[in-house]
Amino acid sequence: MSIRQWCLVVGTVLFSPWVFASGEGLDYTQSTIGYASLIIFAIAYCVVMGEEYLQLRKSKPVLLAAGFIWMMIGYVFQQNGQTDVAKHAFEHNLLEYAELLLFLLVAMTYINAMEERRLFDALQAWMVSKGFNYRTLFWLTGILSFFISPIADNLTTALLMCAVVMKVGGSNTKFINIACVNIVVAANAGGAFSPFGDITTLMVWQAGHASFNEFLLLFIPSVANYLVPAAIMALFVPKTQPDTISQQVELKRGARRIVFFFLLTIATAVGFHGFFHFPPVVGMMMGLAYLQFFGYFLRKTLPRSLARKRAVAEANKDEKALKRLGSVVPFDVFRRVSHAEWDTLLFFYGVVMCVGGLSLLGYLGQVSQVIYTEWNPVLANSLVGVLSAIVDNIPVMFAVLTMNPEMSLGNWLLVTLTAGVGGSLLSIGSAAGVALMGAAHGKYTFFGHLKWMPVIFLGYVVSIFLHLWLNNNVF
Fold first, then answer.
1. Quick one: average pLDDT of 300-307?
2. Is the distance from CB of 309 to CB of 321 less than 8 angstroms?
3. Could you read off the pLDDT of 170-218 as tens digits, one per residue?
4. Which end of the chain is more exposed for a tag (fewer CB within 10 A), N or C?
5. Which residues contact 223 (CB under 8 A, 6 or more apart)?
6. Which of 171-178's residues contact partners 24+ apart within 8 Å by CB, and which partners?
7. Which of 237, 231, 238 is closest to 455 using CA atoms?
8. Do 263 and 119 touch, CB atoms closer than 8 A?
């Protein structure tokens, strides 16, 4: 490989594009606008990484960077008579973001609704009543994350388990950070062997590179990817009891039914994708309607429910129950929507638009040409996982699928594995990690995750070698 090609790979590794824009034949990689865009994005991401110390919300720098990049693109493309090309690319990226935004918004709304109905308080009380120590809780939340994510997707699973950890951990920031790292690793690993576990696996499955059953070949490598770092991290988790008091938690009315509607929403999203080949977000938005109608039912039946409970409390002379009933307010689904983590959602917008602009400038084709024509496929696919840790696994996988290199089933499964679990190396490498940085703001941070990267990378390497050894027959 020439020096220029090496410089190109090193210079653009940090900026794997989100989509391959319609201006496929355009090449601005050696232009002033190209270099300026790379520098702006690099500065923005450095600010994001320093969120813990700067106390600056991560959405702000990437939103500003996206505006500058597209401002420069708009000017240059207008001067070259290519306004329609730039406009089409922007609209395509905006559509990608809209799907992600609505999907995340519904998932966050359900989680906020379950928290408001005290489901996580009840789960916390159950864990405390069982006498689980911090280490047991570390393993319990990690194992649950690993086995729930293949069904509920890694992002939703991570948000659910993070809410539990936040409740149980209380003010123990050290435990919350390491437990969140464990959850991100477990959720990403669990989602790697199921077409519904991660957006990247959905992309590979939909593209027809592997059948539903063939993804199960990744189960053992995925288990190793989680267990290796978890076993090491667990040694640093104390066996002391959480600093919480055991209490009896009464679920608010409708709590269990909201869980049912959440599972129904997931099933609807999977059904829309599996049967009609629509984006899963269609099913998620339909699931939001389930919650809205149920909220309407709760409001309409609240007076009758309160009257019945007040009569029981008065008969038992339960003053605490009467006081609690006096503070009951109707369930409001739009208030749950407003409690979504908007900093995270806006951060995704900035990332999508920044890397979409870099894609339009031609960096995707350059990098793909180097790694898939001059490198061994196993080495290239292993690098994909590292790339996914720096930006996100979705744009990296989209880049691979766009180039569509000639590879065996084993290599397609390998890139599915590495893109899925490689995002665990950094907190910004996967949707689960980014979402948890918002959900556990100030407690789970970029640098808090970074110090565990060596053991996570060890699990990453072990999972690759296990796949090469166990599934050698499909290469």
1. 80
2. yes
3. 778 899 999 999 999 999 999 888 876 777 787 787 677 887 778 889 9
4. N
5. 146, 189
6. 171/243, 172/134, 172/242, 172/243, 173/442, 173/443, 175/134, 175/138, 175/237, 175/238, 176/440, 176/443, 176/444, 177/440, 177/443, 177/444, 177/445, 177/448, 177/449, 178/138, 178/233, 178/236, 178/237, 178/452
7. 231
8. no
